[in-house]
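ok, trying the design again with the full structure, not the truncated one.
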């Protein structure tokens, strides 16, 4: 087993079967879902690095046909069990393998590459591969951690990045350059996640707060309101981009 695959088997070792499909109010995926709802109109979707299928099940519940690719066998096992629990067979298909090594016989209208590029040694090769998988005039959504994150400035995020398998972070302009030099056109970009929200995901004390926010929409709304203020004051921790072929 490669070191890369072994890392993600360990990363997903403590994951549990989700109890329900997320919705638009979910705190963890709030920003990603809002962008997907705006741009993912076609039914034919590929999710590169699908994890335990959280985004895929959401899209499938919106009548999208989704193919998820994930290198971790543990994550795929959870995804397959969830697929049966949520009764979405025929809507979602999961493939276990290394995205860069897999061969495809088809293209997709919408490709998701969320929180993946920062884990890959060759992010340029990943963009090139995605280019070949998107239909003409199709769209790609890419999300990555920002190099402008306030917690970087305070010197407290290095261990989190190491624990999460992050090889790098990106400035918005650098990410745009990487995408556009591979013949994509960026049509939308968004800086998200201020220091408040980012701290909840980085530090252990935030886990309980996230669970509460995911359960109670008004808590999520309050945190998001305060985080938007911190975003304007201190900068973003995440970047979201939509590009077209």
């Amino acid at each position: 087993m490669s070191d890369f695959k072994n890392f993600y088997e360990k990363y997903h070792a403590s994951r549990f079967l989700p109890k329900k499909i997320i919705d638009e109010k979910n705190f963890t995926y709030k920003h990603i879902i809002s962008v997907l709802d705006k741009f993912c109109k076609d039914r034919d979707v590929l999710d590169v690095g699908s994890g335990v299928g959280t985004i895929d099940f959401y899209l499938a519940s919106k009548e999208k046909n989704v193919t998820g690719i994930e290198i971790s066998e543990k994550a795929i096992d959870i995804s397959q069990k969830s697929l049966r629990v949520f009764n979405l067979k025929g809507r979602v298909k999961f493939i276990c393998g290394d995205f860069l090594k897999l061969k495809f016989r088809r293209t997709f209208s919408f490709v998701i590459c969320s929180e993946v590029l920062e884990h890959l040694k060759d992010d340029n090769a990943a963009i090139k591969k995605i280019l070949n998988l998107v239909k003409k005039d199709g769209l790609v959504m890419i999300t990555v951690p920002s190099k402008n994150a306030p917690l970087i400035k305070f010197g407290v995020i290095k261990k989190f990045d190491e624990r999460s398998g992050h090889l790098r972070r990106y400035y918005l302009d650098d990410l745009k350059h990487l995408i556009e030099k591979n013949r994509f056109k960026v049509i939308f970009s968004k800086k998200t996640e201020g220091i408040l929200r980012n701290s909840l995901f980085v530090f252990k004390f935030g886990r309980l707060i996230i669970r509460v926010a995911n359960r109670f929409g008004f808590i999520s709304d309050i945190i998001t309101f305060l985080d938007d203020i911190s975003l304007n004051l201190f900068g973003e921790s995440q970047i979201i981009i939509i590009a077209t072929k």
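Keeping the full-length input from now on. The mean pLDDT is 93.
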